[in-house]
Amino acid sequence: MRLSRYAPLEHPLAHQFQRAIESLTAALVPDSSRQYRGAARHFLIYLSEDHPAVCSLNQLRRDPHILGWFAHLRSHTPPLAPAVYVCRLLFVRSILQELAWTAQLPDLAHLIRREDIPRIPQRLPRPLTAEQDRLIQQELLRRNDLPANVFLLLRHTGMRIGECADLSYDCLHKVGSDRWAIHVPLGKLKTERMVPVDSFVCELVQRLRFFRSFDPLPDGWLLARHSGKQTLMKRLRPYLSDVAAAVGISTRIVPHQLRHTYASEMVRAGVSLPALMTLLGHVKAEMTMKYVLVAGDDLQREFHLARSRPRHLAPQPKAPTISPRAGLEGVVDSLLFAQHAIEMFRRSLPDGPPRHRLDQLSNRLTKILSETRKLNPAG
User: Fold this and answer.
1) Cα 342 to chain center, whole Å?
2) Are residues 140 and 267 in the same domain?
3) Is residue 321, in this structure, part of any structural domain at all?
4) Of 130, 255, 309, 350, which one's alpha carbon is 20 to 30 angstroms from that of 219?
5) Mean pLDDT along residues 137-142
6) Cα(203)–Cα(10) distance, rounded to whole angstroms?
């Protein structure tokens, strides 16, 4: 008989699991303790139904007990969300590792391996639509206060909000004649970079320096952070939601969407993928591609551009002009014309021996041309 979800769980291992959970969650919030208990309860209910003979820790085996539980989780109806599946594996793995130490059974720590736990699919925020971007920037410019300039800086540099909070007061650097860049310090991926900026971004930095001048605390940061970096970010985040609501945007807007919008804008402007990776501070192209939204208008533009100027077609060589020059120059001109004629005919042929043979003849003509140019008629 299946045990009720809310009835007290009676299983020979329930007491030991509970003690391990109490040890693991002693310094955690109640919600974390509840999740640990839920994962343990699900695992023990599975054992009581499918393997009732297991009544001690030393009886637990990877096959069939743990692998069978994996299959049981995957067969759940309705299917478990990927995050729920991963969390249950992680919680039970932590419990087993704790029991391996307290019960002196090292094998328990290896029943659930790292490779058993899939990565949770990462859902990244999407870029703002063109209308959302216009409305939000317009409202930020109208407000022109400290948070508004911070979010405009995020929008036009592609920085993360945590990186912006770490900017130094002298983050703006002149890198050439009328060329400026912002030094972004070590961020999420332990990388630092110089982001090229225009005059508008330079003005934003000057505005933020102006606001900073009202705070006499000389700590070297561009943004004041009296209570720490996390407090600063918590104070900034709700501001963007207020701006979105003020302009009539009902969907939830988060700061990271400004970074995605910047990335998509750079792609539309013709920035290459390696350059965009550097601008965003990414180390893998796969992550950069997740940031870019290719809209329907972008596809239409790229399609018609490709049809008008197909890059996959090699440019046709121009035929050399036949001139009445005499002597060695005339010989060179004739050889160039012959080489052009052979190349144009070779390109019209399908792949096969004749085309390969003409390619060899063209190479020989190249060598003849090289030797001919070395001749000195006066000699």
Assistant:
1) 49
2) yes
3) no
4) 255
5) 95
6) 68
